[in-house]
Amino acid sequence: MAGDGRVTMAYRDPVRTAEAFGSAADRSAYLAALAEFDHLLPLVGAVLGTEPRSTGTVRALTDSRRRLGRGHLEELLRSTVTGGRAWARSRFTGGEVDHLWVPWLLHAGLAPDQAQGGLMLPLLAATLHGVGLPVVEGGAAAFVAAFRGLLDELGVEVRLGAPVEEIVVAGGRAMGVRLAGESIWAGRAVLVSVPPDALYGELLPEVRTEVAGLEQARREAARFRYGRAAMQIHVALSGPPAWRDPRLADGPLIHLTDGSAGTAIACAQAEAGLLPAVPTVVVGRQDVLDPSRVPDGGAALWVQLQELPFVPVGDAAGELDTSGGWTRELASAYAGRVLDRIAAHAPGLTGTMLGTTVISPVDLAAANPNARYGDPYSGACDLDQAVLWRPLPSTRSHRTPIAGLWHIGASTHPGAGLGGGSGHIVAQRLAAPPLLQRVQDRVMAFLPAR
Fold first, then answer.
1. Using CA of residue 141, residue 146, residue 152, residue 154, what is the dihedral sign?
2. pTM of this prediction?
3. In 26-161, at which residue ranges do the beta strands (DSSP E only) sit?
4. What is the pairing mode between strands 281-284 and 405-408?
5. pLDDT on residue 446
6. Residue 45: closest CA among 30, 61, 31, 33
7. What pLDDT does 12 receive?
């Protein structure tokens, strides 16, 4: 929804979504772009689901070239180095696709003009058309509880409130971890889900045995960059918001944005250390999909802001005092600006507010050690910190220079998200038979049966 009240709607049905576009050419181009991406999806899935520097990726590229031809692969590469705004401009004459999908790039840690946007736009659109916006019934805590139950069934011991102090290394190999005054020894491997600077700068001690590549990794980890900070605002309401556009009443997620222009300005202001004057506001209504989250007749807003500086040096609107950093007063005042903007599109909203919780970038960083500097994506998602170079240029895949130590989490490939991609990749590697066993199995497959 734009500042002037203009609304662009996305539905599960891409045809229904395109029907609202003003240009017939844009309607056809939108459906064609989704169909084109559908052909590329097996390759994109293979790249995101395997180690970038692996025979699996090479095999996927080879198969895709044979199936699709060289031109499609070059177009995919071109989209990968293109920003989202440029991708939309090059394909559509109207502004609907830009208005609808470019703000979604914030959920991938990208700004409208950053590389990878041209790949992420059709990926996000295809995903949302395909599976919608699923939520966990009963709240996110139920998601954690389900995993805890699964781990209990498998006999996995989970310890809470005992942060790891050090990874134990002997003879160039990870042997276990020390926490709360005791040691836990690893039978086969140690998996660590932290940003690179935490791994190489804090958890790994000075290793007495010289390990090839370790010092290079330490230097690169010290230069690892973080992206923009985020803020969350949770609002309990006595009733659903009365949107000026009644079509929004059933919308589980709404972006308040003018599209790439406004989002790009807000991102630039945040990068300059300023509180954006007109931020892109993500308004979630998860109770639309899961009424059990609120009392009968009630409602709730899940508000996300992804264009903030961790250390504010000024306010682009010239209204708020940032000299003390993210104090509770500043966080509350900025949240007020955001809620006033929402209320401009939902008259009477303020009168239905029962309670508000504000989680500032500083609060986020304190609550989650992986959200350093308030970055929810555990590291800037620029192209030079993605795919082949995530987490670090010198570390191959999720292996580290330390034998038996594997690096997973949002700071590693395929990046942030709820799919657990990095852990799945490493689990596949650890669960695979040893090389000698694989060779023996292949040889036996060619021998005649007795």
1. negative
2. 0.91
3. none
4. unpaired
5. 59
6. 61
7. 95
- What is the number of alpha carbons within 13 Å of residue 403 lying toward its C-beta? 10
Residues in the chain predicted with pLDDT less than 70, given as ranges, are 434-450
pLDDT value for 210:
84
Looking at 132-184, list the stretches that DSSP marks H as alpha helix, in order from N- to C-terminal side. Answer: 140-153
288-296 contacts, C-beta under 8 A, 24 or more apart: 288/250, 288/251, 288/252, 289/133, 289/134, 289/135, 289/252, 290/135, 290/136, 290/137, 290/138, 290/139, 292/137, 292/138, 293/138, 293/139, 294/236
Residue 163 neighbours by CB under 8 Å, 6+ apart: 179, 180, 369
Q: β-strand 314-315 against 274-275: which pairing, if any?
A: parallel
pLDDT of residue 197: 96
Tokens, residue 68: 């699709």
| Residue recorded with tokens 């709404």 | 254
* Confidence (pLDDT) at 254: 97
In angstroms, what CA-CA distances link 400 with 189, 267, 334, 349, 397? Answer: 11, 33, 41, 51, 8
Q: Where are the beta strands (DSSP E) in 2-51?
A: none
* Helix ranges restricted to H, 347-405: 361-367
